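Quick one - first record:
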Amino acid sequence: MSFLNTFTDNVRKYPNKIALEFIDPPLQRLTYAELDESVNRAVGYLQSLGLQPGDRVALQLSKCLEFILLHLAALRLGAITLPLNLAYPPDELKYFLEDSGAKLFFALGSSKEKIQSILPQLPDLQECIFLDPSEPNQFNSLISNSLIANYQAGLDTPLDEHSGLLGHQKLPNTNYQPPTSNSLISLPSINDTAVIIYTSGTTGRPKGAEITHGNLISNLQSLHEAWGWQPDDVLLHVLPIFHVHGLFVALHGALNAGATTLLMCEFDARKTLQTLVDRRCTVFMAVPTIHQRLLDVPEAKSFDLSHLRLITSGSDRLPDEVFTGFQQTFGHTLLERYGMTETGMNCSNPLNGERRIGSVGLPLPGVEVRVLAETGEILPEGEIGELEIRGPNVFKGYWRQPDKTYASFSADGWFRTGDLGFREKDGYITLCGRSKDLIISGGLNIYPPEVERVLVEHPAVEACAVIGCLDKEWGEKVIAVVVLNRSEAVSGEELIRFCRERLAPYKSPKSIVFKDDLPRNAMGKVQKTELRKTVCLEGK
């Protein structure tokens, strides 16, 4: 049993139901039957390029239908997809393609000049195909049966224009026949790797996490049960599609349930609210930054979102003020959950029950969570330690890095998350930050989220991040990087006094650094590593 099985079942059960609809130009809409047909033709196209089970295919495309078709086709073929952030510069891109040994690479035509210089340095890469998603006919032509057949016969096709950058030539295969739904290859096993997603690289060179077909379906089944996914759900998708949150939790979640997904390629806060209302969406998933932008829409309270049954938040800690702001503005209590690249989703506040502010909720069905001290003993309720995870959701390991895989697991098989947290008496899990973010000043432990929660209570503070910088006297000193509301003004001394009134003195910032914004990744997470590189060096 895999995600591919449930998708195929949904094609049979809901052939005429809308599966995907892009609400931004070029406007595209596919039923489940049409999506299935397009995926099958994409399978044939990938086979014509020589893609075999286990081969890696890299996708550095915008949020577009082409990405989805190639991703699903590769999974169906038993190949491994490699979703890549569009923001990666050539050097980083070269590392991912080289490390993964990608055989095929699909990129945006607009990136051709930037990328072309690295292609000769990638001996495993056999084809680089540049696409323009604003011209859907281009891809339709590539995967159409007639043009594929012509290509296999050695005739000129649009493929010639977009490939061959490495000088590789394919020999005609006159026996080629595009697959149909009745002649598909055998589905991959649950232990086969489906996707490689590289970690953020905050602790060193990014590592490729191998996500298996079994990992995907176990997580989908847990979320289906926990969140009550239904075939009549309508999901508004505003997230990046190269990430676990946007690809697995949102898109796969909807397709697994037989639901409809509306895809917005470029996020716009007001348009999002209007679409949620006009299209009677029932499910919405986002990160805290997006939720904050919805709250910032001047007329936000005028949008009636009462028909939505589920609004989730993830990929970063949900600030308390956003949690309460959503309640006050929209009458919705956001459902915060906890996941990571290597495990998918681990915990979630309940669909029906208390959604606790500051908590990521309870372990999902089939997922075990424990809290360990540095010495290795299991900690009782209320004590902060490192979270470890065990379950069928946990990844296979890091691609071609057995030493790092081994180091990421305990002797008894639990995955070491590197996240700090504690379990409450009733089982709810609360996160306290990453272990690498722990600040030790004067021998005392300081957890940045605790300080950050206090700082954002000040009306002049729009956003903040607390980091530790090396200090000769204290070991580390607490530094707060603060972004102010445009309409407010405050001094660093005032903010320090504000913290000292609400925190133990040793936890309060020693200094405040004002910035126009905070460095964030594509999912909205603050990149504290970048802050340490700049702020700590500036303070020397």
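second record:
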Amino acid sequence: MIVFESIKYKNFLSSGNQITEIQLNKSKSTLIVGQNGSGKSTALDALSFSLFGKAHRNIKKDQLINSINAKETIVEVKFHVGKSQFKIIRGIKPSVFEIWKNGEMINQSSHAREYQQILEQNILKLNHKSFHQVVVLGSSSFIPFMQLSTSHRRDVIEDLLDINIFSKMNLILKDEVYKLKEELKDIDYKISIQENKIETHKKYIKDIKILNEEVKEDKLNQINDAYHEKIELENRIEHCQREYYKNIDRVEKDLKDLHDKKQSNMHSMARVKSKIESLVKNAKFYEDHLECPTCTQSITKEVRETKIQESKDEAKTLQRTMNELSENSEGIENSLEGAISHQEYYRGVMTDINNDEKEIKRLSTFMQKLDKEVKNYSSDDLNNANTELGNMVIDETDLKQNKKDLTETFKYNSAILEMLRDTGIKTKIIKQYLPIINKFVNQYLQVLDFYVHFDLDENFHETIRSRHRDAFTYDSFSEGEKQRIDLALLFAWRQIAKMKNSISTNLLVLDETFDSSLDIDGVENLLKILYTLPDDSNVFVISHKREVLDDRFENKIEFIKEKNFSKILN
């Protein structure tokens, strides 16, 4: 059982920089009141965000940050499961996601999505969808069980009955069956090749027996030479192809990089040359002018000589740079020649490959011609051929045995896979619990003063009959009647969860449930259910009906809005 202890948050939605903290297991029943926009539902959104990274209501993540402070949004929830104490911390600007167990943070080396899976699957045993069916019943952004798709209804019930492990096993086994199917295809292909080899070899042996001994040696030698030449060419083609495809991209890249380097070096040389020419002009100016042409002031000899010498010194330095760039240019040109040579080499390699392939075709035609000309082989050839045939048959037998073993494994896993499908073992378990689920739902419907017979089948389709046995669907009822069904399902789910010890929790939040479609009798009947909940339950009711509910709860929390920030009234 998950026992939620506390939730605290700051800079979350309308809450400011001061921490808001709510004890979740303090009282059996707590009424949360306040004006519209005062922050009543913020705690629920904070709880949902801390556990699942998204709010209860349909609010985008970046909209959860308090719009005034615009940073340092932080939410922290504490709970325990058995003897293990947990703390979840989540934040925005900066981003924070931490899971603490018994005072130590669980390793965050995994991806955030995997970290979330650890929280939901290994700790909470609860996902966002189930959270909204077992823990929360709200009027805002809430999709009742009866309005879920069939697949989503199945997910909720599988979580409740703690049988989603079969779905996980199903996915794993699907992958395994797929691999086995591919292995069987592969081994069938190998068997087919082996059978063709055997048939070809049998024909070869048959030919040996009838071939002419006199022409055997020369023709066989030619065939053997052609075969080895063919093998050699095939190996060479394979080697050349590997070499070509391994290196051609690198060679092309090197060639491009060298062209880029050449261009860059040329630009540098042009810049240096321009600077040298400017310095020469500057020196020439001071050599030719005894006075400033602009202000007509005379230029002293010392100044002229200093300026001329400075220009010459800087020009010498730049000339050395120019020489280095020129040497670099020669090196680049040499490298370019080498790269072009490599490119031409690999293009020649591809030409050689094409030529070798033509030669292989010629050799194959030649070998076929010789094979027809050969009339007989020696007994040694025949013995060797028979030995090789025997080895081929053994290999074929091994392949067929392997196929048999794989086929048996495939059939076994396929049978298990069939059992793990939605229509298999899960449906059998669901069928066992359906009478109990329907019993609980109908009991709660009676408490809520709604006398119909509710029946959910294994396909999660409902049949609702009146006292007169008239059949209805969920959609055919009024909003108030629908809400009674939703409430009955909520409490039934909690009963089942407690029985299965699957997603059982102390916390129950009713968000504006009393404010929607329930009439006075409905309110009283719902309160009657709440009063009968186990002592380890902690119910929070968010409502505007303060005048009706004020004295019906052990504890009360009132939210107010002060200077645009939500806070709890002390």
